[in-house]
User: Fold these one by one.
Assistant:
Number 1:
Amino acid sequence: MKNKLEALETYRAFAALMIAALHFELDTPIVDHALARGTFVHFFFTLSGFVIYYNYHDQFLNFFELKKFIKKRFLRLFPLHLFFLIIFLSIEILRYFAELNFGISSATEPFEKNNFYAFVSNLLLLQTFLDQNTFNGPSWSISAEFYTYILFGLMVFYRIKVIFFLIILIVILIFRQFYGPEFGPQTTYFSFIDCIYCFLIGSIFCELYFKIKKFDFYKNFTNTLVILSILLVLFSIFDFEGKERYLRPFFFGILILFSSNLDKKTLLGKIICNNFFVFLGKISYSIYLSHVFIFWSVTQILQIIFNVGTYVDPNTGIKKLDIDIFYSSILAIILYILTILFSILTYKLIEKKFYR
């Protein structure tokens, strides 16, 4: 395994926190802002393509190494996913008995969406192909990534060159332009296709990184290029609509490309590669999978024990806690703290244990 690119760990942490903000349904600018978007899932896909290509593009000399790669990817993703799948199954069972014995009902019937078929699909990492997100909603992307890893492993095993990556990318782009919903967090096979699309973009930018990382221009203007790339990414997130969204992963790739050369010798490098941010990047997978559970748990405690009321947002149709902006802000901070603390535990007790 090659050395970690610390700036990318920080970006991974930021993306996980923004996805958490998207799911923390509170009326506060701490989480209700323009950057709380599902597009950061595609940033994850692009980043994965870059990092996996960075570490494995020159490996898989035999079938044993290919099996080892797939097993390692499986152990990286599945144990934590299974842990939360069991938790959300337990929640569904509790909802069923609460309604049966105490008449406590919720917006949806127990096992209406999270049924046996959905459970088996999640258990087999096939949930990305379902027509709705079930159990731990964000885990759909884990399914898409796992099968993209397998596809990547086969492509490298059969010595498929980057030019073929580009051809596949163009075919996907043409297909997505004319068929299916617009580019964005999706369900069914479109979510898998979009994952492959972003992953290949990340892989191509990693190959470009190998080509240009020794150039003096790349070395001497890293900080400037990173700042410009961040501005481009923000522009693509805020301004791109419709078919323009297909360009976002390219801007993600540009940012990753130039940030890969950052180190702590410069002010920008010290900020982005800060040890705390890098650590959050290490536990970002746990943050990504745990934040919905943390939010659900806290809101249930507030409603059942502290009798906090709820209302339906007329703009989104989503049920929210009926608390003012001050208490929403305090709660958002508490949710982030609890998510990080819980993620440290799951990282140490599950992720590291099974991955090793």
Number 2:
Amino acid sequence: MKIVSSVAAMQRLALKWRRAGTRVALVPTMGYLHDGHLSLVKRARQAVGQAGLVVASIYINPTQFGPKEDLAKYPRDLPRDTQLCQTAGVDVLFTPDNAEMYPGKAEGAYSTFVVEESLAQGMEGASRPTHFCGVTTVVAKLFNLVLPEVAVFGQKDYQQAAVLQRMTEDLNFPIKLIIAPTLRADDGLALSSRNQYLNAEERAQATILFHALEASKLAVKSKPVAAARLKADLQEFLTAAPLARLDYLEFFDPLTLQPVSKVQRGHQMALAVFFGKTRLIDNARL
């Protein structure tokens, strides 16, 4: 496995691969890898085959964190992540730093950002107003640096995947996005780098997110239900986990991400819940 930390070096490699006609798949991550990330690597390999190349990036992107969020505390373990990538069959690990990705930003020399103005407005966009601008900007930069044919993202960040799909289409990136299923622990909790923040009691109660998704599927299995009623029922349901503090709970059209007044099978549900200072998100198709 080759490790690249320079933007210029990454661009040279990408152009070399393009000239040679080599298929390239990109798996962008912020590190502190878990089995969910490794499943994305596996899916990337399936997409390009053994003759293609899988590039994983590890970069904790500061522009997608708000001023009171956990950028400074975000878990980091590059040696461990490097070993996991090598074992998983990653061909190139791209590990740039802030100076490479946003040169001169502190001095005002960097000032270009990518903004998606429709799908990014609600849910995560409402709770974290600057988040998606940071996400779309860094992913657009990674697309330009790696020049992949395929990019793989996880379905756990459903709104993010939708925003990035729209950005890819609107900006004419010749890239196929693959959205891979959410991986879960045996008790249903979606795998996330932030799960390690949870203490034992918080971790036990965090499964309430998964149970809320399952309860919603059951509620609309036979007939549509008014969204307001279902939200009220689920807010009551969440009180079974005393440490849970709801940030948002939404039912929406899976394509437009617009809220629906009546919830039925085929609609999407997403929620964000705090356990202490740790904010977890999850979603499901109903």
Number 3:
Amino acid sequence: MGGYILKRLISAVPVLLGITVIVFAIMALIPGDPATAILGSYATPENVARLNRELGLDRPLVSQYFIWLGNLVQGDFGRSFALNRPVLDEVLERFSATLVLAGAAFVLCALLGIAAGVVSAARQYGAADKAITVAVILGISVPSFFLGMMMILVFAVRLRWLPVSGMYEIYGGGDLRDLLRHLAMPALALSVVATGVIARLTRAAMLEVLRQDFIRTARAKGVGEGRVIWGHALRAAMVSVIPVLGIQAGFVLSGAVYIEIVFQWPGIGRMLVDAILKRDILLVQGGVVFVAACYVFFNILVDVAQSVLDPRIRT
């Protein structure tokens, strides 16, 4: 197992290097001058040239990339131009809020998606299967940001059951109950599409397993249907479902950008949008690389979990 994990970690290195190249190249292609954006009304040609020299932006792009990459390897993400604070500090502070939102959404989509897929497969072509199929298609078809806006309109504006935006009340609150009230709508909106994808693929995996000989043998031996479905079949189907969970974890993490804007959630997605508008290059690059590294790490965890369920994968 140790060798397999080490192999997966080594294989992640070129992926992360490729991400740094792509992120740096995209930021270099964005029109506009960061020094001009930072200086604002003081952006005279002399001031712009001086600031570019101080920031190292007057050097060739290849030199800028390798300087940034060298600092990145040492854990130095640079300093935010707009916020005047270390990029890593800002990213970690914002990522904690994103992790709460994405974590809650992932738990919801995993539990609801797997449960819906199992029930749909166990009741194939029945009323429950048809109802779940319709719900899944609707969930996959509706964009999460649109669903979020509709939820705000219904549950916050008209019914006034839940707060409109933010993570906590501005005055008062701050406890777990306050967090859950603010978390309910964005987490649900973010999880809907992933729930549909997981449900459909869980159903397909379960149907394939339910046709296998060991399931017929278990039923012939008198094992209860509930134990056959939830114990034997689901465990075997999880080998195929776990990779889907890893992909959807990345989808939920990246999709949090839209939801954070809709619900004004103080996470890393909202930070990246603000940083792009301000041309805060180092903050954007650091934030994207950090999120990409988390996504790669999640996939390694998924591969390890899959190899535990099916040791043949290690070879």
Number 4:
Amino acid sequence: MLKVENVTKFYDKFCAVDNLSFEVKEGEIFGLLGVNGAGKTTTFRMIMGLLDPTSGNITLNGKKIDYSVTDSIGFLTEERSLLLKMTVKEQVLFYGNLKGLDDKEILKRLDELLNRLYAKEDGFDLEKFKNKKIKELSKGNQQKVQLITALINEPKLLILDEPFSGLDPFNIELFKDEITRMANNGSIIIFSSHRMDHVELFCKKLVVLVKGKSVLEGNLKEIKEKYRKKNIIVSGDIDIDAVKKIKGVVSVTKLGTEYEIKIDNKDVSDDVFKVVSKGKNISKYQIEEPSLNEIFITKVGESYEK
């Protein structure tokens, strides 16, 4: 288990992380979210032992994280950290050796990962790909190599910062499968992304940071249930003006052939249904939980207004 307990980090007088606490169990994928400058990178660096907290404790399975445990950690950075003149094989050997693996084990794992990440591509030549220089690869393929370097040591703790950067939907699914495989094998995974839909693919628990301080935390399902605003999706011919006049209706927006009605809370749905049911050709009336993106924007906005 990873435990972050009452962690604060100052740079001189600037507080980058303010009394942050959370824990992540084996097999869990945890979301660490926030706008730029919220304190995510500082938190990552403290978790990996690259920075010491000003106060508080960070432990992995009850042990302080230092160089004795860093070989069991994998990190995919938001910025590309590949050496462009190296071949794929040279790059992965370099990172694997840094994690204490021998060449035979590294190359075995490299082939396994390449076969999973490229298994569905017609005409993929594994040997040819391994001997390509990093600079010859597309951005998407460079991102795949970066993921491989993070996974090559089968880490117990895996930190993923914007892992889907530069990927198309097909490759996002491949990354998703690989990340899920790691979690199923018991890895502790911390996932960060500005794309809330990506976070919702994986994370059951999360923390949202604003100016280094947690403004929202907990189980994603419970967060959505507690969030007051809901969406009603309606398909059919309805009296939009009558719906807008209902107390508790925030907005009515047409989305293609459907209407999205935002309401303050679920209780308003009964009044909306009474009006909508008088319409014609009603084929859909569905109450939806708010998206994480809506909740994120609201909570971050509220925090900056305080």
